[in-house]
Design brief:
Layout lengths: L1 E2 L11 E2 L5 E4 L4 E4 L5 E3 L2 E4 L5 E8 L2 E5 L7 E3 L3 H4 L4 E3 L8 E9 L2 E11 L4 E7 L4 E10 L5 E6 L2 E2 L5 E3 L3 E2 L5 E9 L9 E8 L7 E7 L2 H13 L9 H12 L4 H23 L1
Parallel strand pairs: 4-12
Antiparallel strand pairs: 1-2, 3-6, 5-10, 7-8, 7-11, 9-10, 11-12, 13-14, 14-19, 15-16, 15-20, 17-19, 18-19, 20-21
Helix pairs in contact: 2-3, 3-4
Length: about 280
């Protein structure tokens, strides 16, 4: 009800009655969904239901079309909507192409009203980081199957942003389902000497996530990696008191990074020598 009496001249005072036959409402005019999810676009009518006509329309990029829930497999409406007043449309297995504007339209007697709803696709990226060590160290950060297009990639070293990083980046590649991929490559120097490992972080920001996605990778000096592999070989060789000198010679060769093939020859010689001594004792 609307009254127009307040602050009006005496001659203009009047009482106006407004009668509303239909009301359309939606609890959520804006909806967001990931790919393959089911989403229900809420639309409810209040008022006269007899003889009511319900139609749904879809608009995207300046083009529109009428939807037919009974004929299209991935959209549906509840049965008996004219009586219940629930005109909601369910989109099953949401796809990128389902993003757009949906219009819930109701006709009853001489009246026509509409409710406009938006569906946005927000697909977070899948992030992986790998190392390519030929001949320099390249750290490859892959962001796959995200939507919409814009994505931001930053690199950190031990938790601190890298100033002027040496980067290579691919162009955005579109997948068959409408999502996008992007590859970012960071060229880094090898850690010098026997230092603690460097921790590199690929930080990916996207509208689908509130906080950046962080993926870490540890880079160790090549010298440390090679010595570690040699020492692990030594641990497999049992040292007895009679072979103390020979075993320690093997340790010495390994620590000084003698080629692994030469170390294996020494180990084999030790085992043969030990076997012959045991055979002589038995005789």
């Amino acid at each position: 009800m609307f009254t127009g009496e307040a602050d009006l001249p005496e001659s203009s005072k009047s009482l106006t009655l407004l009668t509303v036959n239909l009301v359309l409402s939606s609890s959520r005019p804006m909806h967001q969904s990931q790919i393959s999810e089911d989403v229900t676009l809420n639309c409810e009518v209040w008022g006269v239901h007899d003889g009511m006509e319900v139609e749904w329309y879809f608009q995207k990029e300046g083009r529109g079309k009428k939807l037919f829930p009974g004929e299209e497999s991935h959209i549906s409406m509840e049965q008996g909507v004219e009586k219940s007043g629930d005109l909601s449309l369910t989109v099953r297995g949401v796809r990128v192409q389902d993003e757009g504007t949906y219009i819930c339209s109701v006709k009853a007697e001489r009246h026509k009203i509409q409710q406009i709803l938006q569906l946005q696709i927000r697909q977070p990226p899948k992030v992986t980081v790998i190392q390519n060590a030929s001949p320099t160290i390249d750290l490859i950060c892959r962001t796959d199957r995200y939507f919409p297009l814009d994505v931001k990639i930053d690199w950190l070293l031990n938790g601190v942003p890298i100033p002027n990083p040496d980067l290579e980046s691919s162009s955005h590649r579109r997948n068959s389902d409408g999502t996008y991929n992007l590859t970012n490559i960071l060229k880094v120097p090898a850690p010098a000497g026997e230092t603690v490992p460097d921790i590199y972080t690929c930080s990916v920001s996207h509208v689908s996530v509130e906080e950046p996605i962080l993926m870490n990778i540890s880079i160790t000096s090549p010298d440390i990696q090679s010595k570690t592999s040699y020492i692990s070989a030594v641990n497999q060789v049992p040292c007895s008191q009679k072979l103390f000198f020979s075993c320690n010679m093997v340790n010495l060769f390994i620590v000084t990074s003698v080629p692994f093939t030469f170390v294996l020859v020494i180990i084999i010689w030790i085992k043969i020598h030990k076997t012959r001594r045991e055979e002589k004792k038995m005789v």
